[in-house]
């Protein structure tokens, strides 16, 4: 089932998420729905806060490479990045919660990450390149951070009106979104 993606401005995107255990209700169904949602939005990663759940869960699927081989596909539960190494490199990133905005973000190219997979088996992996970048982006989500947080003050100022438009729902996306509720203004 495709779920609505939470838009920029919703407080759930700023929460440091809570760990879960193997008894989390309907976890396998949730994971399946997250993949359906991510694929429908043409994404390569999706974190639980982006569907309104402040839990430490995210998924990644970088798709096929140029040779048609399966890319990097994983489920991350209660992930912890243990190490980030290498010279930071810039790459243009976007986010399903922040449609129509893409910016260069500096990230280190190598990480060591520990997590439970969808079968509740503890994993520890060394990742590099695009897999490391996507994991870092999604990991930021479960830490209450967005890629726009990495931008310079000048760039954030230049994007403010676009970000405000997203918060108000004045944006078009090719997928279902849920926008923050309008606050009643006192007069």
Primary descriptors:
metal-binding; 24% helix; disordered C terminus; globular; 9 strands; five-stranded antiparallel β-sheet; alpha+beta; 187 residues; Peptide Deformylase; two-stranded parallel ribbon; peptide deformylase activity
Tell me what you see in this structure.
- 24% of the residues lie in helices and 30% in strands.
- It has 187 residues and is an alpha+beta fold.
- The protein has one domain (5-174): Peptide deformylase (Peptide Deformylase), CATH 3.90.45.10.
- The strands form 3 sheets. A 5-stranded antiparallel beta sheet has the order 2-3-4-7-8, sandwiched between helices. Strands 1-9 form a two-stranded parallel sheet.
- The longest helix has 16 residues, at 153-168.
Distance between the termini: 42 Å
Order of helices and strands: EHEEEEEEEHHE
Low-confidence parts: 182-187
Tell me the CATH superfamily. Answer: Peptide deformylase
Would you give the CATH topology? Peptide Deformylase
- Widest β-sheet, arrangement of strands: 2-3-4-7-8
Topology:
Layout: E1 5-6, H1 27-40, E2 45-47, E3 57-61, E4 73-85, E5 89-95, E6 98-107, E7 110-116, E8 122-128, H2 129-142, H3 153-168, E9 177-178
Parallel strand pairs: 1-9
Antiparallel strand pairs: 2-3, 3-4, 4-7, 5-6, 7-8
């Amino acid at each position: 089932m495709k779920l609505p993606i939470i838009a920029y401005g919703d407080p759930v995107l700023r929460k440091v998420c809570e760990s879960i255990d193997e008894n989390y209700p309907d976890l396998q169904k949730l994971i399946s729905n997250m993949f359906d949602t991510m694929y429908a939005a043409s994404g390569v990663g999706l974190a639980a806060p982006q569907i309104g759940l402040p839990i430490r869960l995210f998924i990644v699927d970088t798709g096929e490479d140029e040779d048609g081989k399966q890319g990097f596909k994983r489920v991350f539960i209660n992930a912890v990045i243990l190490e980030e190494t290498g010279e930071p490199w810039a790459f243009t990133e976007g986010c399903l919660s922040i449609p129509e905005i893409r910016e260069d973000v500096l990230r280190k190219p190598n990480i060591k990450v520990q997590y439970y997979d969808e079968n509740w088996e503890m994993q520890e992996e060394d990742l590099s390149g695009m897999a490391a970048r996507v994991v870092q982006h999604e990991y930021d989500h479960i830490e209450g951070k967005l890629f726009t947080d990495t931008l310079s003050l000048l760039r954030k100022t230049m994007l403010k009106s676009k970000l405000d438009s997203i918060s108000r729902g004045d944006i078009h996306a090719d997928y279902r979104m849920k926008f923050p509720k309008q606050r009643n203004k006192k007069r």
